[in-house]
Design goal:
The complex is a heterodimer of chains A (267) and B (582). Chain A is of the alpha/beta class and 267 residues long. Chain A has eight helices and twelve strands. The longest helix of chain A has 14 residues. Chain A starts with 19 loop residues before the first helix and ends with a strand. Chain B has 582 residues and is an alpha/beta fold. The longest helix of chain B has 18 residues. Chain B is 36% helix and 19% strand. In chain B, helix 1 crosses helix 5. Chain B is built from 20 helices and 21 strands. The chains are: A alpha/beta (267), B alpha/beta (582). Chains A and B meet through strand 2 and helix 2 of A and helix 9, helix 11 and strand 15 of B. Strand 2 of chain A pairs parallel with strand 15 of chain B.
Chain lengths: 267, 582
């Protein structure tokens, strides 16, 4: 089956130039490359631009409630271990209203096995569907509709470090503007037997600043096992996804100094 | 000799009050008595107080006295707390442990008999955990229990403490025989023809069960495949009992991070074809409201058991109340159809749990079962209702012909659409909490679809209101005096009427289906009713208000309702009922 067989007939409501199109394509490509029949896939999303995803696929799916994709996906996977279960959500969805579920799904074991679902986070650093409010991953200098100009905004939530400390067994970062690289990440995440988390940097043409879009273009650093990885400390590091400490260092790199793309940690 | 006996046990938490009561109930049940044990305790780990009210009767119809025939008090420190629950009268045979702490109480209660439970226990070299076994010895003699049967139950109870428990039991038995205690048997011996050991007809098979365990057994009966819960008093026993049973048979049980997640996992499992249940209490019901809305909107079967406790907020976690009715019926935003059932006795907890699964699967809708602490944690020994046959209804699946052209929410004549469970080849569909088309695809801009789908979800439930077996009536149907009640309070209303011989003078209606309300059944009950009396255990009279919202009630309608904290007793309702029957 080609990747178009995984697409439904519903027309996405996303803006022109939205990164989500790239994620949709990469997801379909990964499913097609892995030759998983559509009826063997269940995709669960919350609420937001990203969460419209299930409707655009020809698989089984539910566009559920804000923040609640993780529990619903967990239930589906436990009842139906034969299905490939994916979660699609945004930064507000997964890391604000739904953040309470993440440290549990990463650590939870059922009949001694970890919960085998793949979570794809569409990180556009803003609440876009509700037209531009501050999200947990909004940069402190980014102006939104709900930025309080009289006092500093909350610092950005470092959700990759959060996932790492919550013992997510598979941690990767991709970018929506490079679907072929993202496809590989999604394939690896689905193949991983446990909870896998991919943070996808997705540009929002409507609400992101020109400055951020420029950083997204210029500051990408691809990481690959066995190859040198750039870190701001100036030392020479060779990437090893099994190295928990190294993953911590990579994740702590400020985004304006480098956005690491690839499998950052794999247990 | 008496045909029934009422017995209270009180002590500090951790002194084995409930264990003693349970063992007595077990032996009593073996002796073919009907029994019941209500539990009263504090929300503490150890310490605090613990009490049980235990009663036996020879026939199901015999109501044991609400005043105590016997009271065993291991520690009198908190005795006064239970003044209402454990009424002591002059005839009460009152054993009070002869320990320094209890000395002041002997002056207060002149009928208290000093009994050295603790001393005997120490003499046997046992830890004080076995103090209750000394009491078991004494009570076994008074109740005329067969010694060997008691020993068998003690052995079954704990292997670890078997030796010291037996020693203490024997010592208690011995001491009571040599002491100058009244040596009468309170209970009437079993009629020989009912004793199978003596070649007579076997009695009906008995079980010992509480409402929470009845829910568990019913869930197993309907082949529930998924239970998700978060610990909460007084519902936790359901997860503690059902969880391991499901896991050991390859089914799903998870202790979730909160009740939102619990209901979420259930919805996910249900999409995959599981029969799913959440067990919780009021605070958990609040949390999972958004999931209830999703299950209703996306037509996903889901069973929610709410073992009510006194609210609002944290309220009284270990005490009963019937105050979640409004939340169960009207809770959540939007116009959310769901089904609400309420059992009024232990058998009902079982039967209606099966019904809840059947309704949920058939109508593809969330169903809330409203139990309460009094029902959930009161242990009864009763005829075995679990061995009866019950019809099990499964979810409607699409026809193979619909392959490739499947519309998940197709409008059918009865508004129920076939449900292709996730993973079925050829029927892929996507659903949503958004207003959707027949296919399931979002249509959040169409007012026309909003109307059409709301109508579908509400109208599909209407046949349920015509289901006659979900409204129970008692008494004299020709009476002009009607009494309505629901849940565990209804049982006490019935018993109070029975005790006063008033049941032939009134008619009683107990709807087990509270939403959607079986209007026709209730209206036909209310026909020719001059006076209506409504009784329930919550301050604001939620059931009465709910009835008023749907049905024209007689002008002369009176309500007896009060806040919970303690369940109704027959004597509390006595004056009110005799007044209204006048």
């Amino acid at each position: 089956m080609t990747y178009t067989d995984y697409l439904s007939k519903v027309e996405p409501i996303w803006c022109k130039g939205c990164g989500n199109f790239g994620i949709l394509k990469a997801t379909c490509l990964a499913l097609s490359n892995l030759e998983i029949p559509p009826h063997k896939i269940g995709i669960v999303s919350g609420i937001g631009c990203s969460s419209r995803m299930p409707g655009y696929l020809s698989t089984y799916g539910i566009n559920s409630l804000h923040g609640r994709a993780i529990p619903i996906a967990t239930g589906l996977k436990l009842a139906r271990p034969d299905l490939t279960v994916l979660v699609a959500g945004g930064d507000g969805d997964l890391f604000s209203i739904g953040a309470g579920h993440l440290p549990h799904v990463t650590r939870r074991k059922f009949q001694e096995k970890p919960i085998d679902i793949t979570c794809i986070m569409f990180d556009n650093h803003v609440y876009a569907l509700t037209k531009g409010q501050t999200s947990p991953t909004t940069f402190s200098d980014q102006k939104t509709k709900t930025t309080d100009f009289s006092s500093p905004v909350d610092p950005l939530l470092d959700m990759l470090s959060f996932m790492h400390s919550s013992e997510s067994g598979f941690l990767a970062q991709g970018i929506a503007t490079d679907p072929s690289h993202l496809t590989k990440l999604i394939e690896e995440a689905i193949k991983y037997k446990g909870f896998s988390f991919i943070n996808v940097q997705t540009p929002c043409p409507t609400h992101n600043s020109e400055e951020w879009l420029k950083i997204l273009k210029e500051k990408r650093i691809y990481v690959e096992a066995g190859k040198e990885v750039y870190l701001p400390d100036g030392e020479r590091w060779i990437h090893d996804p099994q190295d928990w400490e190294l993953a911590c260092k990579i994740l702590k790199t400020p985004m304006n100094q480098g956005i690491h793309l690839g499998i950052i940690y794999k247990k | 000799m008496k045909k029934s006996v009422s017995l209270g046990i009180v002590g500090l938490g951790g002194e084995g009050v409930v264990i003693l009561g349970t063992l007595l109930l077990k032996v009593g049940s073996r002796e073919f008595y009907h029994g019941k044990m209500q539990k009263f305790y504090d929300a503490r780990i150890k310490g605090g107080s613990s009490a049980v009210f235990l009663s036996f009767s020879l026939e199901k119809e015999i109501l044991p006295s609400e005043n105590l025939d016997i009271l065993v008090c291991l520690n009198g420190k908190n005795l006064k707390e239970f003044r209402a629950e454990l009424p002591i009268v002059s005839q009460t045979l009152f054993f009070l442990d002869d320990i320094p702490e209890n000395r002041p109480i002997f002056n207060e209660y002149s009928n208290a008999l000093p009994f050295p439970f603790e001393k005997i226990c120490r003499e046997k070299g046992a830890t004080l955990q076995s103090k209750n076994m000394v009491a078991l010895g004494v009570l076994s003699r008074i109740l005329g229990f067969d010694k060997e049967e008691v020993i068998e139950e003690i052995k079954k109870f704990s292997k670890k403490y078997e030796e010291q428990n037996l020693a203490c039991f024997e010592a208690g038995l011995e001491f009571s025989e040599t002491s100058e205690l009244p040596s009468w048997q309170l209970l009437k011996p079993i009629p020989p023809q009912r004793d199978p050991a003596k070649g007579g007809m076997p009695g009906l098979q008995k079980i010992i069960i509480d409402g929470n365990e009845a829910v568990v057994q019913a869930a197993l009966k309907v082949a529930c495949t998924c239970l998700i819960a978060y610990p909460i008093t007084p519902a936790s026993e359901i997860m503690e009992s059902l969880g391991p049973k499901l896991l050991s048979s390859g089914k799903v049980f998870v202790q979730a991070e909160d009740e939102i997640a619990a209901a979420g996992l259930c919805i996910g499992a249900s999409l995959g074809g599981a029969k799913s249940m959440v067990s919780t209490s009021g605070p958990g019901l609040d949390l999972l409201m958004e999931m209830l809305g999703l299950a209703s909107q996306a037509e996903i079967p889901l069973v929610i058991v709410d073992v009510q406790r006194a609210g609002p907020a944290t309220g009284m976690p270990t005490k009963t109340e019937q105050s979640d009715l409004f939340t169960a019926i009207y809770g959540g935003h939007g116009d959310t159809p769901r089904v609400v059932l309420a059992p009024y006795d232990t058998e009902g907890c079982y039967r209606l749990t099966i019904e809840a699964f059947n309704i949920s699967e058939y109508y593809q809708t969330p169903v809330i079962l409203l139990s309460d602490q009094n029902l959930g944690q009161t242990l009864v020994s009763t005829c075995d209702f679990t061995s009866k046959n019950y019809q099990i209804i499964e979810r409607l699946k699409p026809d193979e012909k619909e392959k490739g052209n499947y519309r998940r929410y197709i409008i059918t004549p009865n508004f129920i659409s076939p449900f292709a469970i996730f993973g079925t080849p050829g029927f892929c569909w996507q659903t949503s909490g958004l207003t959707h088309q027949e296919t399931g695809a979002p249509a959040s801009e169409s007012a026309e679809l909003q109307q059409k789908m709301a109508e579908k979800r509400w109208k599909k439930l209407l046949p349920l209101t015509k289901q006659k077996d979900l409204v129970k009536t008692f008494g004299n149907p020709k009476s002009k005096i009607g009494i309505m009640s629901w849940g565990s309070s209804a049982k006490t209303v019935l018993e109070s009427l029975q005790e006063q011989g008033l049941l032939s003078k009134v008619k009683v209606c107990i709807p087990e289906l509270l939403h959607p309300l079986p209007e026709e059944e209730i209206q036909s009950f209310l026909k020719n009713t001059k006076k209506l009396c409504i009784c329930e255990l919550n301050y604001s009279g939620q059931f009465a208000r709910h009835l008023r919202a749907w049905i024209d009630l007689p002008k002369n309608t009176r309500i007896y309702s009060r806040a919970g904290g303690s369940p109704f007793t027959r004597s509390e309702l006595k004056d009110w009922l005799s007044e209204v029957v006048k």
